[in-house]
Write a structure and sequence with these properties.
Helix content is about 45%, strand content about 15%. The protein is of the alpha/beta class.
């Protein structure tokens, strides 16, 4: 999607957890200490943050504002509590819930991530079931049955949103001033 839509920048979240194998600091997450994360919470650095499974995850308000001030759109990969916090501060944002094709496939994908105990997988699966109920307030839903199709749908949503009349008022006004 990022290759097809050059005006989109991926927002790399911060986390207090340690990297999983093959995760790269600054690409997958910004990995920081629990204490540093807490300090940043106290200083109001996050537009949203949550504690999941004993670890912090959050999105920097500075990253969002910098991207928007430079005419870039941001793609965030966050869970529903964080999405609700962002919706409060950025009501024009577009929210897309990506669903697995089935509970069995979700469990299979959680297990495939590797390096987590069966107990941790059970906890994640249980929490994901409650998160799935949040889908109804999102603007769009994509079933990730086939990655290529899911990406095409996400790109289609992005392009459709860019063409919404309320997002083009400045350009429309310039046409009428001719």
């Amino acid at each position: 999607m990022l290759a097809a839509c050059p005006d989109i920048k991926f927002s790399v979240s911060l986390t207090s957890r340690t990297p999983r194998p093959n995760e790269i600091n600054g690409k997958d997450y910004h990995f920081i200490s629990h204490e540093d994360f807490q300090r940043r919470i106290d200083e109001g650095e996050f537009v949203e943050w949550v504690e999941n499974y004993g670890q912090f995850y959050g999105t920097s308000v500075k990253v969002i504002n910098d991207a928007l001030n430079h005419g870039k759109d941001l793609l965030l990969d966050i869970e529903p509590r964080g999405a609700k916090a962002i919706k409060k501060q950025f009501p024009d944002a577009v929210f897309v819930f990506v669903l697995p094709p089935s509970p069995d496939e979700l469990l299979k994908r959680l297990k495939k991530r590797g390096h987590e105990s069966e107990e941790a997988i059970k906890i994640r699966f249980s929490q994901s079931n409650s998160e799935l109920k949040e889908v109804l307030w999102y603007d769009y839903t994509i079933f990730n049955e086939d990655l290529e199709t899911a990406v095409f749908q996400m790109i289609s949503i992005y392009h459709a949103e860019k063409c919404k009349t309320n997002r083009l008022c400045g350009k429309i006004d310039r046409v009428f001033k001719i």
